[in-house]
Amino acid sequence: MPPTPPRSSGMPDDTALVIIDVQVDFCPGGALAVNDGDAVVPVVNRLADRFSTVVLTQDWHPPGHSSFASAHAGAAPFSMAEMPYGPQVLWPDHCVQGTPGAAFHPDLEVTRAQMIVRKGFRPGIDSYSAFFENDRATATGLAGYLSDRGLRHIVLCGLATDFCVAYSAMDGRKVGLAVTLVEDACRAIDLDGSLDAAMSDMRGAGVTLATAETLAG
Ligand code: VGL
Ligand code: ZN
Q: Which is the most buried residue in 16, 99, 170, 214, by most CB within 10 A?
């Protein structure tokens, strides 16, 4: 048997922690700062110790990405655009590949992560979800990775609750996984009621809500 990393009050081996987009640009001072975004870092670090499998996602856009308002003449950040695959929020430039803003938060404990899923790298498609891009069809490969490793349950945390975390939770259910959201290990952007909508979608899809404290091991 391969050695098992140290864990305290460990979660079952078929359960992976998936840490969504805990990156400099989503934290205070960043290009698309989420209120209190960096507050998740110590909570996420403590959570990660309880899992034998830890996956990170990293928003990873090329310069001039089509989800950036700056790529659409006259468009303001946080306005909507119609893309070939449907409506898309236009964001401030953020998480540009190889820039400091795209790096993981410097205090995020990344050494135990076994897989890093980069997403949003296709110039014409945004990708909120860790599983499928915003055309809802292009796969990132995460479903195959989890299934190949016999992982059937994901526990989600990170940024932002109402976009990348919620889309990942919904898609996790879609590909047949059990999904738990750790509410106090997430923070939201909350654009026009997006947090309430995301929470009710997740509840309706059978996502289990937990806190770092109540998360059963
Ligand atoms: C995200 C907006 C744009 C997220 C990523 O991580 O929630 N939100 N890109
Ligand atoms: Zn993005």
A: 16
